[in-house]
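Work Package 3 (structural annotation) set out to generate three-dimensional models for the target panel prioritized at the project kickoff. During this period the team completed the workflow that converts sequence records into discrete structure tokens, so that structures can be stored uniformly alongside our sequence database. As a representative example, we reproduce one entry of 85 residues exactly as it appears in the project archive.
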Amino acid sequence: MSKCSFNIPVSGNIQHVLGKAKTAIEKQGGSFTGDELSGSFNVNVLGNIEGSYTITGMEMFVDITSKPIFIPCSQIESFMRSQLA
């Protein structure tokens, strides 16, 4: 399984943004735990995707620790950006 990292700018209320992330992941049958500082998530979409995040200021740093090799990091990043917008 491959791994990757990326940053997502966060605007507005951090709790609201995290709520959107949690809802998106749980809609896919995954789990999301954490707070406004850090947390972790996993979801099974064509294979298991696991990761963690930390928030510093108005930026979310995402570290994907496990993903199917055939799902590019850019696709995961794009999905997360669209869900948090």
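The chain has one domain: 2-84.
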